[in-house]
């Protein structure tokens, strides 16, 4: 594990003074015993806020993934036990409660954002971050700088966003908003999942505001979503126990009454773009970030709550969004999406990918990934997701790559055909690098009598057959109604 990324142990910076605290004296940087899932655990207090339902403390639990950080009420903190107090020199306040510190942090962040527009930053936990691991170059071994501070123009909107209407051009906003146990196949699944639980895929740089999840709950259609990470919704939203996001236009409300009024008026029932794929299970819509700027920014704000290292909030223009939905009588419900740069010099076919949390681990990620490769096949290009991948991104891609390579090799075998890295790459629209890494990780490449060979162990074929019989859903490529869009260089919008 890279110590730069994973600082799962709280308070590992030397001896600390210990004595009792009260709800009023407990401060940021303290380590207290806090109840989590019925057990008392050491937790560092990262932030404190007064909400309508009382004082809340934001806790980072020892040895838990930071996705599991949470706001806890006073009653879950054990004040009978001594609290470890922050070292005045070493443990600076970490959440910007200190006004001066917060301003300085904001300045730093705005400097950091002056990078290539639309570039997201991603880091990963899991053994993939270990040097020499076959997947190590897919992930970051360095701590990452983080998402921007709360954007100014959003703060000023007092909890409302304009709804994106129909399929009209949505260029309403100013152009100057800031950019803001070992298994046979070589992977130890249990160990990785354990690392996912206990690792931290987000930078643990204590000076960053975005370390703290700012929204507790999101009402989204019939679901309550519990965010994992910071997202720059208006600062006033952080006082709320829950916010509401319209599941169709994705506009956001802190206040239930305004949200109810909005729902009566909102006419959108599907993402504002062209439906380019439909089967009896899902649809895909293609949405241009420039034509539907507000909708796409809202999508980014929403997805940031579940994506750790994304800085694409404002400069959505250079991207296309491929949004997967499921239909009910109410409309087309957002299941997941991926974004793709209109012109990507690095040849990435996916910038960011997300399955909404209520739909995760049901096979939708596979469909999104397959769709991205089907588009690459139509374009006649090889594609790969933007690196570094997140922990869950890496697991999902690795699974997709492995399954598809094994299936293809079985086909080659049945036809008694020879295969090469290049032929696999062309058939699957995967880069040769991704093919090679997958073969290496699966230990399928051998050097025999002066030749590199790909071997497909019988056990692997059987395991794949079993998994395949369970996998019900695939994208039917013949149903995709899509031609690669052409953009004019100046506008990066549709060339017509
Ligand atoms: N634990 C273990 N394995 C997992 C997990 C997990 N939590 N999630 C996915 N996988 C692996 C499994 O092998 C799974 O297959 P299985 O269920 O048959 O075992 C395979 O990935 C595919 O799973 P799906 O159910 O198809 O994937 P899902 O719909 O959950 O979507 C995704 C995967 C998109 C990565 C989702 O976890 C997500 O949105 N995460 C948050 C955002 C994120 O990290 N996105 C990727 C960033 S990298 C980038 O954008 C390029
Ligand atoms: Zn709406």
TrEMBL record:
<keyword id="KW-0010">Activator</keyword>
<dbReference type="GO" id="GO:0006281">
    <property type="term" value="P:DNA repair"/>
</dbReference>
<dbReference type="Pfam" id="PF01853">
    <property type="entry name" value="MOZ_SAS"/>
</dbReference>
<dbReference type="GO" id="GO:0000812">
    <property type="term" value="C:Swr1 complex"/>
</dbReference>
<dbReference type="InterPro" id="IPR016197">
    <property type="entry name" value="Chromo-like_dom_sf"/>
</dbReference>
<dbReference type="InterPro" id="IPR025995">
    <property type="entry name" value="Tudor-knot"/>
</dbReference>
<feature type="active site" description="Proton donor/acceptor">
    <location>
        <position position="386"/>
    </location>
</feature>
<comment type="function">
    <text>Catalytic component of the NuA4 histone acetyltransferase (HAT) complex which is involved in epigenetic transcriptional activation of selected genes principally by acetylation of nucleosomal histones H4, H3, H2B, H2A and H2A variant H2A.Z. Acetylates histone H4 to form H4K5ac, H4K8ac, H4K12ac and H4K16ac, histone H3 to form H3K14ac, and histone H2A to form H2AK4ac and H2AK7ac. The NuA4 complex is involved in the DNA damage response and is required for chromosome segregation. The NuA4 complex plays a direct role in repair of DNA double-strand breaks (DSBs) through homologous recombination.</text>
</comment>
<feature type="compositionally biased region" description="Basic residues">
    <location>
        <begin position="108"/>
        <end position="118"/>
    </location>
</feature>
<dbReference type="InterPro" id="IPR040706">
    <property type="entry name" value="Zf-MYST"/>
</dbReference>
<dbReference type="GO" id="GO:0031453">
    <property type="term" value="P:positive regulation of heterochromatin formation"/>
</dbReference>
<keyword id="KW-0539">Nucleus</keyword>
<keyword id="KW-0804">Transcription</keyword>
<dbReference type="InterPro" id="IPR002717">
    <property type="entry name" value="HAT_MYST-type"/>
</dbReference>
<protein>
    <recommendedName>
        <fullName>Histone acetyltransferase ESA1</fullName>
        <ecNumber>2.3.1.48</ecNumber>
    </recommendedName>
</protein>
<feature type="compositionally biased region" description="Polar residues">
    <location>
        <begin position="139"/>
        <end position="148"/>
    </location>
</feature>
<feature type="compositionally biased region" description="Acidic residues">
    <location>
        <begin position="167"/>
        <end position="177"/>
    </location>
</feature>
<dbReference type="GO" id="GO:0044016">
    <property type="term" value="F:histone H3K4 acetyltransferase activity"/>
</dbReference>
<dbReference type="Pfam" id="PF17772">
    <property type="entry name" value="zf-MYST"/>
</dbReference>
<dbReference type="GO" id="GO:0035861">
    <property type="term" value="C:site of double-strand break"/>
</dbReference>
<keyword id="KW-0234">DNA repair</keyword>
<keyword id="KW-0227">DNA damage</keyword>
<keyword id="KW-0007">Acetylation</keyword>
<feature type="compositionally biased region" description="Basic and acidic residues">
    <location>
        <begin position="87"/>
        <end position="98"/>
    </location>
</feature>
<dbReference type="GO" id="GO:0140861">
    <property type="term" value="P:DNA repair-dependent chromatin remodeling"/>
</dbReference>
<feature type="domain" description="MYST-type HAT">
    <location>
        <begin position="210"/>
        <end position="484"/>
    </location>
</feature>
<dbReference type="GO" id="GO:0003712">
    <property type="term" value="F:transcription coregulator activity"/>
</dbReference>
<dbReference type="GO" id="GO:0140064">
    <property type="term" value="F:peptide crotonyltransferase activity"/>
</dbReference>
<keyword id="KW-0012">Acyltransferase</keyword>
<dbReference type="InterPro" id="IPR036388">
    <property type="entry name" value="WH-like_DNA-bd_sf"/>
</dbReference>
<dbReference type="Pfam" id="PF11717">
    <property type="entry name" value="Tudor-knot"/>
</dbReference>
<dbReference type="GO" id="GO:0006357">
    <property type="term" value="P:regulation of transcription by RNA polymerase II"/>
</dbReference>
<keyword id="KW-0808">Transferase</keyword>
<dbReference type="InterPro" id="IPR050603">
    <property type="entry name" value="MYST_HAT"/>
</dbReference>
<dbReference type="GO" id="GO:0106226">
    <property type="term" value="F:peptide 2-hydroxyisobutyryltransferase activity"/>
</dbReference>
<dbReference type="GO" id="GO:0003682">
    <property type="term" value="F:chromatin binding"/>
</dbReference>
<dbReference type="GO" id="GO:0035267">
    <property type="term" value="C:NuA4 histone acetyltransferase complex"/>
</dbReference>
<feature type="region of interest" description="Disordered">
    <location>
        <begin position="1"/>
        <end position="23"/>
    </location>
</feature>
<dbReference type="GO" id="GO:0005721">
    <property type="term" value="C:pericentric heterochromatin"/>
</dbReference>
<dbReference type="InterPro" id="IPR016181">
    <property type="entry name" value="Acyl_CoA_acyltransferase"/>
</dbReference>
<comment type="similarity">
    <text>Belongs to the MYST (SAS/MOZ) family.</text>
</comment>
<feature type="region of interest" description="Disordered">
    <location>
        <begin position="82"/>
        <end position="188"/>
    </location>
</feature>
